[in-house]
Amino acid sequence: MPGRYRLHLSPSCPHCLKIAVAHSLLGLEDACPVTLLPAVPDGPGGEHSALRPLYEASAHRYAGAAVAPVLSDDWSGRIVSTHAPDIMRDLARRFGGERPPLYPKGMEAEIEAVGHLCEQGINATAQRAGRADADDAERDSALGSLLRTLRSLEGRLARQDYLLGDRLTAADIELWVSLVQLDTVHRWHLDASAVHRVADHPALWAYARRLAGDPAFGAHLDLDGIARRHHAHCRGLEAAGAAVQIVEWAAHAPDRTASRQG
């Protein structure tokens, strides 16, 4: 039912950014409107106070943080889901209509595997490689794991346009958001030589730039919001890699204000 369901997103959050991209690719602006939340949560535990009524209406005496993303039912005033992968699949399968499928039949397991690879092989290893409280051996081991993952992805993207072949799928959303996080967040805690080694994957970063130029991707890049969210919550030390930006995201992303007005 058009207009019944609503997304509550803060695109500075990587989980919300994935959903925002999927929402645009599926053309769901009218079918499932979006309420944008501040880049930096205004409560403890990543809470957005604007979401507190929805959480309390959905769970009696809810005591946890009211976090984004949220898919809600405007008719009941309750939450449908807060799990980003489930929300993305629901948008694609229940609202996708005539748009190219983000989860093509028979590719679900591959897409899930890519999500795991991005979470463990990129996000988690990049965090460990930049931990100030880890010793050199731990950081070197994590960096080695990160570079092996990037090298495997580089091999795929050197011979095909998209991660799983000749068409864009949800796997590309997963990878693109991880690359955005790697360059706009994790890079701040790596040394300069590590960032140069991360950058030395030309097909991978050309792919990231190309997708950033697609309004369905780049129009949701809130670079200032990502930076403010990161600095508001991060307690790690800034390293020399902070000065070595891999992608000029602002140069490849469409103007966000113009995109919204258009």
Automatic annotation (TrEMBL):
Task: Report a single Gene Ontology molecular function.
Answer: glutathione transferase activity
Give me the Gene Ontology terms describing cellular component: cytoplasm
Origin superkingdom: Bacteria
Read off the InterPro entries from this record: Glutathione-S-Trfase_C_sf, GST_Omega-like_C, GST_Omega/GSH
Report the PANTHER family cross-referenced here. Answer: GLUTATHIONE S-TRANSFERASE OMEGA-LIKE 1-RELATED, GLUTATHIONYL-HYDROQUINONE REDUCTASE
Protein name in the entry:
Glutathione S-transferase
